Description:
A: mainly beta; seven-stranded mixed β-sheet; globular
Amino acid sequence: DGGITQSPKYLFRKEGQNVTLSCEQNLNHDAMYWYRQDPGQGLRLIYYSHIVNDFQKGDIAEGYSVSREKKESFPLTVTSAQKNPTAFYLCASSTGQGAADTQYFGQGTRLTVV
Amino acid sequence: SQQGEEDPQALSIQEGENATMNCSYKTSINNLQWYRQNSGRGLVHLILIRSNEREKHSGRLRVTLDTSKKSSSLLITASRAADTASYFCATGDDYKLSFGAGTTVTVRA
């Protein structure tokens, strides 16, 4: 079954902790993206990667970090420096990059700070 | 940012009626995409329309693009309860997409 898988579906973080959200795809896509969605709002780009071992900051990268060691994996770490991490996080991938290509999304991870 | 803005923010219609939502953007584009998001789920791609296209159809969906007005519309005909979702337009550059805040559509039975 081809697709993009995010885990876990729900994640609870204590104040001051780092947490890592997993994103795996078996679509053989080069490009991968992380977005944050707050209630009633659109998606904001955190980080993106167009090729293995390379990634770029998006619009709201502060307090987040990523790695792209394998083509199929693009984990996102929410660090303690992110002051308001409670949100819905979406990972996406695409064959090419940018506005010309369709993005395929995972089902999201809902992160809550407790 | 070339972020699109959808209008209206929310729309409530009766099953069987048509639903129309609009997207406006600020700068020139090569493509514009529409996505759907069911509550608590990921986004699903609906249609991509290129700047040299004026209209595109996919099943009960019809998308128009007016580059002179920097706007696009998404029409859902003969709506069903399953069309209840948020709809987003997305524009971008060679590297990434930018999404609007979306239109939330509720289809009443």
